C-alpha cells in the first residue's frame, strides 16, 4: 500500500464492514477511520509484513499480505464485498505465493482460515493450498508445490 491510496482503501473497507466482520476478521475493526488506514500504511514494515493492493486496472478490489518470519510466510487477504466471486483473491494469492517462493525463497507458505469461511477455504485450495491442521475454529493450510 502507498499513502496516496489510503482514501481508496478506506472506502473499500467502509463499504464492506459487515462482510469483513464475519468469521472474526479484524480488518473492519482495525480501520475505523481514514486516519487509521493512513497511520497503518505509514508505520508498516514491508520486510516483515508485505501488503499489496489487489487492483483491476484502476479499480481497487481488495488487499493481500504476506507476514514473514524466519521460517515461513503467512498469506492473508480481503476483498471489497462488491468484487467477490470474480477470481481476484485466487489470482492474487497464486501470484503472492509465487513471489514468496521464487523471490523470498520461503519453503513454507501457509494460511489460517476460519472453518466456517468456506469461500476463503475454496480460494486457498484453488491457489494450491491443502488443509494440514484443524482445530474447533480454524484450518491451517500449507501451499503445496506441484509434482515435477
Structural notes for this entry:
35% of the residues lie in helices and 30% in strands. With 148 residues, the protein is α+β, with helices and mostly antiparallel strands. Strands 1-2-3-4-6-5 form a six-stranded mixed beta sheet, with helices on both faces. Strand 2 (59-68) and strand 3 form a beta hairpin. The model has no long low-confidence stretch (mean pLDDT 92).
State the helical fraction.
25-40%
Helix-strand string? HHHHEEEHEHEE
The tally of strands reads 6
Largest sheet: 6 strands, mixed
Strand order of the largest sheet: 1-2-3-4-6-5
- List the total number of helices: 6
| Sheet/helix structural class | alpha+beta
Furnish the topology, listing elements before pairings.
Blueprint: H1 6-15, H2 17-20, H3 27-30, H4 34-43, E1 49-56, E2 59-68, E3 72-79, H5 88-102, E4 108-114, H6 118-126, E5 129-134, E6 138-143
Helix pairs in contact: 1-4
Short description:
With 148 residues, the protein is α+β, with helices and mostly antiparallel strands. It has helices spanning 6-15, 17-20, 27-30, 34-43, 88-102, 118-126, and strands at 49-56, 59-68, 72-79, 108-114, 129-134, 138-143. The longest helix is centred in the middle third of the chain and has 15 residues, at 88-102.
Structure keywords:
single chain, 148 residues, alpha+beta, 6-stranded mixed β-sheet, 6 helices, 6 strands, 35% helix, globular
